[in-house]
């Protein structure tokens, strides 16, 4: 095996181990990956999401691994006489790691110890093996064996260090803190979900999405690990009194529970990025009123521990009729780590990228001009209310069903407005009304079903929703950028 590759293994193993000691999120490899995501041009990012879907991050990590391996191997090959090219490469790797770690807002300066450990270990191992290698080439007795032994020892040591780091990180991760939170009992529970709220037996999703099935969208390469005891939320900017909350400050307040359907702006027509949960937390408007929002404030600029940011209209965040939340619970449990533990924002009626900051740690009351959030700098819109949409869940595309009466079922949503009507049509036939499920509240999806007569052969079925403001979904197709897709969901099936 190449000298450079062995030294690379040692560098990564050491970095991972030290990261577990100083800060779980400081592992140099992951920090560099996160930095790479931030620096990736939008077009490439959109391409990666389209092509690899939720595997986009895995592909990035593997791609980074391949590049690092090639560079390390080349460094080894270029260092036949002098170790300088190899040392330069490891210094370069280490510095990239240091910069990536320093740029993360959630990491203390001590976190640079992780990439520094990588740099020092990589360079030291490289220098050592290089010396042994030179001796072997000059035919010094037993030196060949020494090189092999040293190489194998280093690789084994790197493995042990990486595994040890992984184990150590596990003992200090957010999951153990989450398990210790205990039950979150809302003072005001959400009304129970009536039995007729979904048509799951007919092929729609269940009304509440189990946490493990709830869609997940974020730019974090590794799920940020924040323990409740370490978390705090700073509320500042255009307010009369700056406030800092600890987890217990939020937990000890009277908690409310609200049933809310969340949607991602990246959801294509017919896509999966829509889910519903009972969120438990406190009213975001209450926190803002207690801090005293100054006149002229427009934007609530929220920052996550991983540096991701979002901008929400202050008016939406404060409107009691909308019920925006700082949520700490989801479907009867503390927030799952991947959904933002210890705390996140949820604002009914707005796409997640302008409202739903996970692992939220900073709220700044400001103007639109003063701060620009993560996706705004990447061509997405400043204001992004969720668009009225509907989706066919049954039959599945390209299914074959018996001819005659065909059942069609699905979901529709128009958060903060409410769904008034859903219609379906076969081929270019007339629109026909679907049956709607009982309405839980206007911030949640509504399920629908219909029965249509079809002749044997191939067909298409489409659906469209009308919301309570009287707007009927346009059939005109628009892509997700900049503020959400439009068009009717249409699927093909065969009767016969
Ligand atoms: N920290 C952080 N919060 C985030 C995001 C992110 O990338 N990072 N993505 C947002 C987007 S685009 C959406 S749609 C919702 C998704 O929340 P979920 O993963 O819990 O479904 O989270 C929002 N909050
Ligand atoms: Mo999103």
UniProtKB/TrEMBL annotation:
Q: Which SUPFAM superfamilies match?
A: E set domains, Oxidoreductase molybdopterin-binding domain
Keyword Transmembrane helix applies: yes
Q: Entry's Pfam families?
A: Oxidored_molyb
| Species this protein is from | Amycolatopsis suaedae
Instruction: Spell out the InterPro entries in the cross-references.
Output: Ig_E-set, OxRdtase_Mopterin-bd_dom, OxRdtase_Mopterin-bd_sf
* Keyword entries, A-Z: Membrane, Transmembrane, Transmembrane helix
Name-wise, this protein is Molybdopterin-binding protein
Which residue ranges traverse the bilayer? 58-77, 84-103, 109-134, 146-169
- Which N-terminal stretch is annotated as signal sequence? none
Q: Give GO terms: molecular function aspect only.
A: heme binding; molybdopterin cofactor binding; sulfite oxidase activity
Q: Where is the Oxidoreductase molybdopterin-binding domain?
A: 221-375
Q: Does the keyword Cell inner membrane apply?
A: no
Query: Biological process (GO) annotations?
Result: sulfur compound metabolic process
């Amino acid at each position: 095996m190449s000298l450079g590759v062995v030294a690379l293994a040692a560098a990564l193993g050491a970095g991972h181990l030290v990261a577990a000691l100083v800060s779980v999120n400081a592992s140099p490899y992951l920090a560099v990956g996160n930095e790479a995501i931030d620096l990736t041009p939008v077009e490439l990012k959109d391409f990666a999401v389209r092509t690899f879907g939720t595997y986009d991050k895995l592909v990035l990590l593997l791609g980074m691994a391949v590049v690092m391996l090639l560079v390390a191997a080349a460094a080894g090959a270029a260092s036949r006489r002098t170790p300088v090219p190899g040392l330069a490469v490891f210094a370069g790797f280490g510095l990239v790691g240091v910069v990536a770690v320093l740029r993360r807002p959630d990491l203390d300066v001590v976190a640079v110890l992780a990439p520094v450990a990588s740099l020092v270990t990589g360079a030291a191992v490289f220098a050592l093996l290089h010396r042994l290698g030179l001796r072997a080439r000059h035919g010094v007795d037993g030196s060949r064996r020494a090189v092999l032994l040293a190489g194998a020892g280093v690789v084994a040591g790197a493995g042990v260090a990486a595994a040890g780091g992984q184990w150590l990180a596990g003992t200090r991760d957010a999951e153990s803190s989450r398990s210790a939170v205990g039950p979150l009992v809302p003072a005001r529970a959400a009304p129970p979900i009536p039995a007729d709220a979904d048509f799951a037996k007919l092929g729609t999703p269940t009304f509440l999405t189990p946490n493990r099935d709830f869609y997940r969208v974020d730019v974090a390469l590794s799920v940020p690990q924040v323990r409740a005891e370490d978390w705090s939320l700073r509320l500042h900017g255009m307010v009369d009194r700056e406030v800092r909350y600890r987890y217990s400050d939020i937990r000890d307040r009277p908690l409310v529970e609200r049933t809310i359907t969340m949607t991602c702006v990246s959801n294509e027509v017919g896509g999966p990025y829509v889910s519903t949960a009972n969120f438990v937390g406190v009213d975001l408007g209450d926190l803002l009123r207690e801090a005293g929002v100054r006149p002229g404030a427009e934007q609530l600029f929220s920052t996550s521990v991983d540096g991701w940011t979002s901008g929400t209209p202050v008016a939406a965040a404060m409107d009691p009729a909308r019920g925006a939340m700082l949520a700490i619970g989801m479907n009867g449990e503390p927030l799952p780590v991947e959904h933002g533990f210890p705390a996140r924002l949820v604002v009914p009626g707005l796409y997640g990228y302008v409202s739903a900051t996970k692992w939220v740690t900073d709220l700044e009351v400001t103007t639109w001009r003063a701060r620009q959030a993560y996706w705004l700098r990447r061509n997405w819109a400043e204001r992004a209310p969720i668009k009225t949409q509907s989706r066919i869940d049954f039959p599945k595309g390209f299914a074959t069903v018996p001819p005659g009466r065909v059942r069609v079922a699905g979901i529709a949503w128009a958060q903060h407005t409410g769904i008034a009507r859903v219609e379906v049509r076969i081929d270019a036939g007339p629109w026909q009304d679907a049956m709607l499920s009982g309405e839980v509240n206007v911030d949640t999806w509504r399920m629908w079903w219909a029965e249509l007569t079809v002749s044997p052969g191939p067909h298409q079925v489409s659906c469209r929703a009308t919301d309570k403001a009287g707007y009927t979904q346009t059939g005109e197709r628009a892509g997700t950028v900049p503020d959400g897709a439009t068009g009717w969901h249409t699927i093909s099936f065969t009767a016969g």
